[in-house]
UniProtKB/TrEMBL annotation, chain A:
This is Tripartite tricarboxylate transporter substrate binding protein. Keywords: Signal. InterPro entries: BUG, Bug_dom1. Belongs to the UPF0065 (bug) family. Residues 1-21 form the signal peptide. The keyword Signal applies. It comes from Nitratireductor indicus C115. It comes from the Bacteria.
UniProtKB/TrEMBL annotation, chain B:
It holds the Pfam family TctA. Residues 20-440 form the DUF112 domain. Keywords: Membrane, Transmembrane, Transmembrane helix. InterPro entries: DUF112_TM (IPR002823). The keyword Transmembrane applies. It comes from Nitratireductor indicus C115. Coiled coil: none annotated. This is Transmembrane protein. The chain crosses the membrane at residues 20-39, 108-131, 138-159, 165-184, 204-224, 259-283, 330-350, 356-383, 390-409, 415-442, 463-488.
Length: 317, 512
């Protein structure tokens, strides 16, 4: 620790004297994406990176550190210097770690400084064409008449996608058998073939199958209908109250990053989220949120408790 | 007609200038590494992998695939001129190719192998065009039980068909399966065998494993044997590249038989180009009225194996692209490359990514034509590459391999994993344990486990799900048959003996 702080001090001294928020940033900012290059999260991060860098006045560099469902990259940032030059682009999965990976060496509240919940991608409920129902109410009734007979496909046990689906199942009181697959596209293939009856995914993954009428999209997990496909009705319109299901994407910094720097980053991100190219990418899967740092912190805290409860009830260890 | 439209769209992709360029780079590199004994397509593909991260996935796969089939062209050149197989799939070509060169017919031998390679490759591309979309559409209906059965058959075929001892093959499969278990279990979310190391929670990196077992082990074992002298090229005359009419007449039936055997071997999991070329040579010898002349420089002896290995490298793409089940270790790494690019191989690939699939198929032809042009007139130039001192080459390769493995996850841990498996792989080479079945076990093992558990979930615990559909029942029968066959078949015995003979006479390189 002493050594690390020494290096941190030396680095800071070399570049800008003591960390001086008003001069920040004086060199490129690294955003760690804890997933592989080319994936959906990485693509979004890269699209935001360019205007984000323009707003900051320094280039923003994306660094992929994939592994352990994002935990490898998150841990790397948690251990980085809190100088505003290493940030984390993360998903709602950070709120699932305490439940599914309790042995991790970091804790969101203790190790991170939230910056902004930037965008979100609502989950869409999709079912197999082989089921004799066409809307959400019909599906819920059908599932209640056939308890334990229908299959729910997920990209893996303990993934946030599975937990979102479990939350829905618990909320409407239906009993489907959970069948894990190795990834979202495998679930979709199985749903197309009729092996799986029910799945949730963001619209990015489902679009082709929904457009090609290979699966039925029953509902979108947000209060309002979404621009990517206004034909998909919401939960509330179909009598399901009280839940929102959405994946989201956020920026965080290591704990101890000066408040002024966090504020500067939040402002720059607001600017970046107005960029037409960013809007185009985001609206293909959901919407811009652009929260305050506090709102992101509260969201994570709320979801940590939520997913712990959902997982316990669903029997996910 | 649908196929013609698709092909037209494919050529539109393959003939974009950047795709032609990268196809050219791929096949040229393939020719070069094929020519250089001891450097395989697998290590080259893994080294190139990180460079492709920011390329368009189609372009990336076109280049990587080019290395694979390009190597088969270059490999025969080394066999003919040096009597050292550039890749193990070209080992049999030495038997008649080198005597031809000594008889002053090196030019003819090179021309013939290039032409038969082209014919064999083209035939498999045609088969691929007609078969893959059909299999893919069929496979869309496959459920977990079907995938389980196919993967089990693939694994059994891979272990029993591979080299020498079936027992060693099986043992390596088991080691591969065990290594495949490391990391998070998809079914329960539980971490297995990660020893508390965060980097292991997604399992071992396939690239690190493959690079260690093949690339690093290849380099280390070559260094152990390497004398420091560059290869001596025997004096050969290029007087005539033109085969005589008699040569063509003699070699045509062999080419046809070779390409049929090769195409089949490529589709079968585990067989691959090496076995294809050995089988084709054996078949020729048996079919010939003058088997005693084999080994003295007969054209049949080079036409059949070269048609076979090229046919098999092309048809190997069929199961990989249509089912997502790799038939050999190179395909396994290409599969990994697709996944890194966010493309999930499987039946939906052909239907949902037509520009990738048809573009790739069309690029095969572009690549094969480039190879024809490269290998015939420019052969003299390529041979000069053999003068590179190997110690410099190996150090450079090791360096690039390390960079390559690091870049995939920006993780130093993977470099150590790779070096560790490099040592293990070197030991395996010395002790003659085949590495290919290990890699297939690593890929197919988790596939089998996941699909078995999934199938049982879907059938609510009914084991009959594994035999009650036509596909699962067929695969179950095939699996049992190939297990039994592998221990008693005279053919399996022949392959084993042929391999032993080769490794005795050529040293124990032998990589698939």
């Amino acid at each position: 620790m002493i050594r690390r702080s020494f290096i941190a001090l030396a680095t800071a001294a070399f570049f800008a004297g003591p960390v001086m928020a008003q001069d920040y940033p004086v060199r490129p900012v690294t955003v760690v994406v804890p997933y592989t290059a080319g994936g959906a999260t990485d693509t979004l991060a890269r699209v935001i990176a360019t205007p984000f860098g323009e707003a900051l006045g320094q280039p923003v560099v994306i660094e992929n550190r994939a592994g352990a469902g994002g935990a490898v990259g998150a841990e790397f940032v948690a251990r980085s210097d809190p100088d505003g030059y290493t940030l984390l682009f993360h998903t709602a999965t950070v709120a699932v770690y305490p439940t599914t990976q309790p042995n991790l060496d970091f804790d969101y509240a203790r190790d991170f400084e939230p910056i902004m919940l930037a965008t979100r991608a609502p989950y869409v409920i999709a079912i197999s064409n082989k089921l004799p129902v066409d809307d959400l109410e019909g599906f819920i009734d059908y599932a209640k008449e056939h308890p334990g007979e229908l299959n729910h496909g997920s990209p893996g046990a303990g993934t946030s996608t599975q937990l979102a689906a479990e939350l829905f199942k618990q909320q409407v009181g239906i009993d489907l058998l959970h069948v894990p697959y190795g990834g979202s596209s495998a679930v979709l293939t199985a749903t197309r073939a009729g092996e799986i009856d029910f799945m949730v995914d963001t619209y990015l993954g489902l679009k082709g199958a929904v457009d090609g009428k290979d699966v039925k999209a029953l509902a979108v997990g947000t209060a309002k209908r979404q621009a990517f496909n206004p034909d998909i009705p919401t939960f509330e319109e179909q009598g399901v109250q009280g839940i929102e299901l959405a994946a989201w994407f956020a920026f965080a910094a290591p704990k101890g990053t000066p408040k002024e720097i966090v504020a500067k980053l939040n402002t720059a991100l607001h600017e970046a989220l107005k960029n037409p190219k960013v809007l185009e990418t985001v609206e293909a899967q959901g919407e811009v949120i652009g929260s305050t740092p506090e709102e992101l912190g509260e969201q994570v805290n709320m979801e940590i408790d939520l997913w712990a409860k959902v997982a316990k009830e669903a029997g996910v260890n | 007609m649908e196929i013609l439209t698709n092909l037209e769209a494919g050529f539109a992709v393959a003939l974009q200038w950047d795709n032609i360029l990268f196809c050219f780079i791929g096949v040229t590199l393939g020719t070069i590494i094929g020519l250089l004994p001891g450097i395989g397509a697998l290590s080259t593909i893994s080294m190139l992998l990180p460079i492709t991260f920011y390329m368009d996935p189609t372009t990336a796969i076109i280049m990587l695939a080019g290395v694979f089939y390009g190597a088969q062209y270059g490999g025969s050149t080394a066999s003919i001129l040096l009597n050292i197989p550039g890749t193990s799939a070209n080992a049999v070509t030495c038997l008649d190719g080198h005597p031809m060169a000594k008889n002053g017919r090196a030019g003819v031998a090179l021309a013939l192998t290039t032409i038969t390679s082209f014919v064999g490759g083209s035939f498999s591309i045609l088969v691929m065009i007609f078969l893959t979309p059909y299999i893919a559409r069929f496979a869309l209906e496959f459920g977990a039980a079907e995938y389980f059965s196919i993967a089990v058959f693939g694994l059994i075929a891979a272990s029993t068909l591979s080299r020498g001892s079936a027992l060693k093959g099986l043992a390596m499969v088991v080691v591969g399966v065990l290594l495949g278990i490391v990391g998070m279990d998809v079914n329960s979310g539980v971490q297995r065998f990660n020893f508390g190391i965060l980097e292991l929670s997604d399992g071992l990196s396939i690239v690190a494993l493959a690079m260690g077992l093949f690339g690093v082990a290849e380099i280390l074992s070559n260094l152990l044997r390497y004398s420091g002298e560059p290869y001596k090229i025997d004096k050969v005359t290029y007087a005539s590249l033109m085969p005589t009419r008699q040569d063509i007449r003699d070699s045509t039936p062999s080419t046809v038989r070779g390409m049929l055997i090769g195409c089949l071997c490529g589709i079968l999991p585990g067989a691959g180009p090496t076995i294809a070329s050995f089988m084709a040579y054996a078949a020729e010898k048996r079919a010939s009225r003058h088997p005693e002349r084999f080994g003295t420089g007969v054209v049949q002896g080079i036409a059949a194996p070269e048609a076979a290995n090229n046919a098999s490298v092309q048809s190997a793409f069929i199961p990989t692209l249509s089912l997502g089940i790799p038939g050999d270790s190179v395909m396994a790494v290409l599969l990994g490359a697709l996944i890194i690019h966010g493309i999930v191989p499987g039946p939906t690939l052909v239907l949902e990514q037509p520009q990738l699939f048809w573009g790739l198929v069309a690029s095969f032809w572009v690549g094969n034509i480039i190879l024809l042009a490269l290998n015939l007139p420019l052969i003299g130039l390529f041979v000069q590459i053999l003068r590179i001192p190997y110690d410099a080459l190996y150090i450079a390769m090791l360096f690039f391999i390390c960079i390559g493995v690091f870049t995939i996850r920006n993780n130093v841990f993977d470099i150590f994993v790779m070096l560790g498996f490099g040592l293990v792989g070197t030991f395996m080479l010395i002790a003659r344990f085949p590495a290919a079945p290990l890699l297939l076990g690593f890929i197919l093992g988790p596939m089998i486990e996941e699909n078995m558990r999934r199938a049982l979930l879907l059938s609510r615990g009914d084991w009959l799900t594994f035999v009650d559909s036509p596909i699962t029942a067929t695969c179950a029968v095939l699996s049992v048959v190939s297990l039994v066959w592998s221990f008693w078949s005279p053919l399996a015995g022949f392959i084993g003996r042929a391999r032993d003979r080769r490794s005795n006479s050529l040293g124990s390189t032998g990589f698939d």
